[in-house]
Amino acid sequence: MNSITTLLEQAVKQAFAACGYNETYGTLTLSKRPDLCDYQCNGAMAAAKEAHKAPMVIAGEVIEKLSGADCFSEVGAAAPGFINLKISETALASYVDEMNRSEKQGLTIPETALTILVDYGGANVAKPLHVGHLRPAIIGECYKRIAKYMGHHVIGDVHLGDWGLQMGLIIMELKRRQPSLPYFDPAYTGDYPSEAPFTLADLEEIYPTASARSKEDEAFKADALQATHDLQMGNRGYQALWEHIMRVSLPDVKRNYDRLNVSFELWNKESDAKPYIRDMVADMTRRGIAHYDNQTLVVDVKEDTDTKEFPPCIILKSDGSYLYATTDLATLVQRMQDFHPDRIMYVTDKRQEMHFDQVFRTARKASIVNADTSLEFYGCGTINGKDGKPYKTRSGQTPRLEALIDEINAQMLKKINENDNLDTAEASKTAGLIGLSAIKYADLSNQSAKDYVFDSDRFTSFEGNTGPYILYTIVRIKSILRKYAGDHPEETTHPILPAEGAAQKELMLALSRFAPAVTQAYNETAPHKICTYIYELSNAFNKFYHETKILSEPDPDTQSSYIGLLQLTRKILEDCIDMLGFAAPERM
To answer: Are residues 67 and 209 in the same domain?
Structure first.
């Protein structure tokens, strides 16, 4: 199903062609003055230079050709040559009615589905998820959902960090505390204990203690680096501790992602790339792509077009240890073998841009990915406090993700209890749904690469451009539809008739923009475009609601048309918030 703009453009392009001008001048844009018209065309001004005519003359010629077009109710010109167009109520109703009967409300699905892999987790195990993990998780999940809605085959990979320095730090701190454990005895050959020598709470205390110690004790840090190397090289005792760490910490990581309604098709880890490293390194060395510089294996990735220094990509440290670049490249080898993706998208902190530039250039140089495989980095901005600095608790600590969610949910529960009579269980469930909408919408309504200020009071408001406002709109629609269904239990199809008032037409125009909004959000990898769209749609619906007596409308055909509009509005809003990664309750 073509977009309504495309359908209207066909008539305008034909008019330009009939006047002897190139039809490409018939491109339409949404009017910036909706009080004057619905769409405008600036083609007359573009054609003026080529035709050696005044723009208003060209506009007049085109308007004359459009005078009989059924799709427009009004066509006019404004200096210096704008062509202003109002869509006819009949054409608009016909289009919106077809949307209501179409799969995905008229969105055009691509003929060929792409295979897209989205890497958007990246949490380090053995460490609690904190506010810094919020944006990659939320934004990556949204990218994945939008691409799936567009009809593509999308695979989300959490890509857990399980092989870095944090493991060496934990191992050395455990050794310092419990040196007699068999994991630290190189002569031990028996089976290791099945139970971990620590709990999740222990791990959450051990890592920050070890991290702080490494900043003050150079010898301890050196031991941790050596332990990281030994783990990567297969130290039996350290691998057994690693397995304990994974078993203890993974359920907590999954639980926190579940609370964000973030899911992954793959729960792969950095260490899963190990089987691919040796052959990858041997191939790059044999072909002269990688070379040793002071016993460090590197790939030179600076290009002639670079205007600033671009450091080489380090593949192996002098002791043979692996780095993030090593495992990221080996993971690319694995992904190409397993999935042959058309696009691979990385969603993480924007400060990692240089790292991924190095990895991508190396992957191209070493032919790890196909020439037509797109490698894309999407850097996330920072969540800041009202002081403009990275968001912290009152004690100056980086907030744990779980605590942040609890704080927002508590605010929502308080508001619900003040205004509604829901029972305790339903109130708590509803608070969770609204709280998640507040968090996710606040994040996704901002451009992904930009920083934003975390303001819980504003985000949890039921007024303004917020998640709770969007949900309140959906719940209002559901309530009306339930009441209507009580009196009309057998009615399912509701033909949409031409608008009878300005508010109704405004709602229908907003509905007609659904497919272009989703397509633009996908093409530009811009979730905030969907947020902008559903905020405008919600405003249009609420204006229509306040000006229209829907359930008391005496004419059954008119009332049925209203219900058709409500059904379509609900479907679009629910599809959009599902793409954003949250859902609406039945009542609020």
So the answer is: no
351: CATH: 3.40.50.620
What torsion do the CA atoms of 118, 122, 128, 132 make, to the nearest 10 degrees? -80
**Distance (Å, rounded) from C-alpha 111 to C-alpha 113?**
7
Domain limits at 290?
A: 115-161+265-384
Structure tokens at 262: 């973030």
Find the Cα–Cα–Cα–Cα dihedral 96, 98, 100, 101, rounded to 10°: 180
Cα separation values, 292 from 280, 316, 318, 321, Å:
15, 9, 9, 14
Q: Are strands 29-30 and 343-349 parallel, antiparallel or unpaired?
A: unpaired
Mean of all residue pLDDT scores within the chain: 95
Q: Is residue 97 part of a domain?
A: no
130 lies in the same domain as 9:
no
Sheet with 72-78, edge to edge strand ranges: 29-30, 39-41, 82-87, 72-78
Q: How far apart are CA 313 and CA 400, in angstroms?
A: 33
Q: Determine phi and psi for 232, rounding to 5 degrees.
A: -65, -30
Query: Which runs of consecutive H residues, i.e. helices, occur in 217-368?
Result: 218-232, 236-259, 274-286, 324-339, 353-365
Q: Which residue has the higher pLDDT, 202 or 392?
A: 202
Q: What pLDDT, on the 0 to 100 scale, is given for residue 356?
A: 97
Cis-peptide, bond into residue 34, ω within 30° of zero: no
Confidence class for position 173, pLDDT limits 50, 70, 90: very high
* Residue 137 located in a structural domain: yes
Dump the DSSP string for 335-385.
Answer: HHHHH--SEEEEEEEGGGHHHHHHHHHHHHHTT-S-TT-EEEEEEE--EE-
Q: Are 207 and 166 in contact (CB under 8 A)?
A: yes
Are 272 and 364 in a shared domain?
A: yes
In the chain, how many domains are there?
3
Q: What is the DSSP letter of 322?
A: B
Q: What percent of the chain has pLDDT over 70?
A: 99
Contact status, residue 511 vs residue 565, Cβ threshold 8 Å: yes
pLDDT tens digits for 294-308?
999 999 999 999 999
